[in-house]
């Protein structure tokens, strides 16, 4: 049973049961551990049935009884045929628990049983526990806050709800240029968002964006990239080049075109500076305000003052300061009016320039149209002129035209016959080439489908390789954590010894059964021989007893001897039956002793007292209410 218990404990660890390393037998299982193991197995076998079952026993005795009944009903629902009840979990019996656990382990799904050969590292157990907890929470329906019970407080409390706010994350990439930055400056992902509540949402959004981008690229490559007969790098570079050209064309179309004759500037420019100059527009050189030096501004101001002095009388020294200020204000007002007049003139000139540019473009279009019309009219005039020149000798010209027409018709017929001679082989060649092209298209489509299937196989093989690589790493980690003094040969030798012991036991059982059959056959032969001997002796002695008195006494002794022998044989058989019953009773006593009947009875009495106390307390609360 030790080997069976080790196999059961190993399987229970695989489903997430927290079995300590010191536990090596089902006999050491407590009621809490039994409940957890059974619930874990039921959740793996039937998640819908096991999600409503707790993995631990509650403190109250009445709640413990209800949990035990629920586990017993769930075990029967998944097909357990043995005797089971709440006592199986609360008052554990080693044979019953072993039988139940063996049934549950055999009932586990095949992939779970295959996964039992995989390493049981802490990370694997943690991942499975997380997956089981998420599945259990997904099964539980959502309830409004007013309808929630204390049982739903852990999974549906309002404090755990946050708005789905996403912030961009900067993830490290394996490039040499930013390696120092990622190692020394880049903060971890959990510290990049401004609020801790947005970490999970940001990670989920980043992961979803990467997955969607990879899926879009796979779809585009499988649909268009393979048809281009390019490598992925070449396809990406060509796509980037096309995108740049499209952006450049959009920028060029957004620029306002001006003809060269309007202002002497180019219509389209490729350089960015010229493109920005186009966006700024064109203006005459005399209206462009240039930034001058301080000396130029000083000279211009002096020249303005001198011009003003030439047009106005020179103020005398005797004029008061108020007259000077008044004259300066008047000059300022006049300058402002001149400046406003200049601004209005500039606006008017700009509008006139725009109007003239539009008018110039219209005139150019009209000029081109008239030139085209003139060329057509000149051609018509030349034809009419030649016709007028031919009118004086009309008969001879008609005969010449008819001869030309007939010669042209004969030449057309000749050319048609020659074309038919060349047309037939060309049509045949065209059909042959078309058939070859169709065959090549079919072959290319077949090869394309094969390439797509190969890509799918490569992707599946890559995923399998990644999974196997992860399993390999887990196995290496598990191998490093195992004690190095135990070798595989020791386990193999132990298994071979167990197999040889089983063979020896089978041989001994077979030998005992054959000896028993031989003894039973010998006993049957001796019994038959004894009965025949007694029958013959009885017949002979009975014949002589009729004649001789002494023989009559011998006949009585013979009958008494036969009866005593029968009684002795019956006594021996009864003794053997009693001995077998004694052995059966001793085995039952050992079984009852191993099932801890006395301890279970004491626990039942304690639980009964606890239930009576709970009932008394509930009755007191009811009376108080």
List the helices and strands and how they pair.
Elements: H1 2-14, H2 31-45, H3 47-50, H4 61-77, H5 86-90, H6 94-107, H7 110-115, H8 122-139, H9 179-184, H10 199-225, H11 232-254, H12 260-263, H13 272-280, H14 294-311, H15 321-390, H16 394-481, H17 488-545, H18 549-594, H19 597-624
General description of the model:
With 625 residues, the chain is an all-alpha fold. It contains 19 helices and no strands. Residues 112-117, 256-270, 279-295 and 309-318 have low confidence and may be disordered.
List keywords for this structure.
single chain, 625 residues, mainly alpha, 19 helices
Overall mean confidence score, pLDDT: 78
Q: Structural class per helix/strand content?
A: mainly alpha
Number of strands: 0
The main pleated sheet reads as: none
Number of helices: 19
Helix and strand sequence: HHHHHHHHHHHHHHHHHHH
> Roughly how many Å is the radius of gyration?
56 Å
Which strand-content bin applies to the residues? under 5%
Unreliable spans = 112-117, 256-270, 279-295, 309-318
Task: Indicate the percent of residues in helices.
Answer: over 70%
| First-last Cα distance | 55 Å
Apparent shape: elongated
In short:
By secondary structure, the chain is an all-alpha fold.
């Amino acid at each position: 049973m030790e080997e069976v218990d080790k196999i059961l404990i190993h399987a229970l660890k695989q489903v997430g049961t927290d079995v300590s390393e010191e536990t090596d037998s089902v006999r050491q299982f407590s009621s809490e551990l039994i409940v957890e193991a059974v619930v874990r197995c039921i959740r793996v076998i039937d998640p819908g049935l096991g999600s409503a079952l707790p993995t631990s026993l509650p403190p109250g005795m009445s709640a413990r009884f209800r949990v035990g009944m629920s586990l017993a009903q769930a075990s029967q629902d998944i097909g357990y045929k043995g005797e089971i009840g709440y006592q199986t979990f609360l008052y554990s019996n080693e044979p019953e628990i072993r039988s139940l656990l063996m049934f549950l382990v055999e009932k586990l799904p095949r992939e779970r049983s295959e996964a039992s050969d995989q390493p049981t590292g802490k990370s694997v157990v943690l991942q499975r526990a997380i997956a089981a907890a998420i599945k259990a929470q997904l099964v539980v329906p959502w309830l409004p806050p007013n309808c929630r019970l204390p049982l739903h407080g852990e999974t549906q409390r309002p404090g755990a709800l946050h708005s789905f706010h996403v912030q961009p994350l900067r993830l490290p990439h394996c490039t040499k240029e930013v390696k120092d930055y990622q190692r020394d400056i880049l903060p971890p992902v959990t510290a990049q968002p401004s609020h801790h509540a947005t970490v999970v949402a940001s990670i989920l959004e980043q992961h979803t964006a990467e997955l969607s981008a990879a899926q879009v690229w796979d779809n585009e490559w499988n649909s268009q990239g393979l048809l281009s007969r390019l490598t992925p790098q070449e396809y990406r570079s060509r796509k980037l080049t096309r995108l740049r050209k499209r952006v450049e064309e959009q920028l060029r179309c957004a620029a306002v075109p001006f003809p060269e004759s309007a202002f002497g500037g180019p219509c389209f420019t490729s350089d960015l500076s010229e493109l920005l100059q186009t966006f700024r527009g064109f203006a005459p050189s005399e209206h462009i305000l240039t930034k001058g030096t301080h000396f130029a501004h000083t000279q211009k101001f002096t020249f303005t003052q001198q011009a003003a002095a030439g047009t106005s009388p020179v103020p005398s020294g005797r004029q008061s300061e108020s007259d000077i200020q008044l004259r300066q204000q008047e000059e300022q007002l006049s300058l402002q009016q001149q400046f406003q007049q200049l601004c209005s003139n500039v606006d008017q000139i700009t509008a006139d320039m725009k109007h003239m540019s539009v008018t110039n473009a219209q005139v150019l279009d009209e000029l081109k149209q008239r030139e085209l019309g003139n060329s057509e009219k000149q051609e018509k005039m030349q034809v009419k002129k030649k016709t007028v020149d031919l009118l004086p000798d009309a008969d001879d010209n008609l005969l010449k035209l008819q001869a030309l027409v007939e010669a042209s018709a004969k030449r057309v017929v000749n050319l048609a016959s020659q074309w038919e001679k060349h047309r037939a082989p060309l049509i045949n060649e065209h059909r042959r080439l078309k058939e070859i092209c169709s065959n090549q298209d079919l072959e290319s489509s077949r090869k394309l489908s094969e390439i797509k299937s190969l890509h799918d196989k490569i992707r599946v093989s890559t995923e399998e390789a990644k999974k196997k690589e992860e399993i390999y790493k887990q196995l290496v980690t598990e191998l490093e954590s195992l004690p190095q003094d135990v070798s595989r040969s020791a386990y193999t030798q132990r298994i071979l010894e167990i197999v040889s012991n089983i063979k020896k036991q089978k041989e001994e059982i077979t030998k005992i059964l054959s000896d028993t059959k031989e003894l039973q056959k010998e006993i049957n032969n001796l019994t038959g021989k004894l009965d025949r001997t007694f029958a013959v002796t009885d017949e002979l002695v009975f014949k002589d007893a009729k004649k001789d008195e002494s023989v009559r006494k011998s006949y009585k002794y013979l009958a008494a001897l036969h009866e005593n022998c029968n009684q002795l044989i019956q006594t021996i058989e009864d003794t053997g039956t009693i001995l077998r019953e004694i052995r059966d009773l001793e085995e039952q006593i050992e079984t009852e002793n191993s099932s801890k009947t006395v301890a279970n009875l004491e626990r039942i009495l304690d639980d009964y007292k606890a239930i009576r106390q709970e009932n008394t307390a509930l009755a007191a609360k009811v009376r108080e209410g």
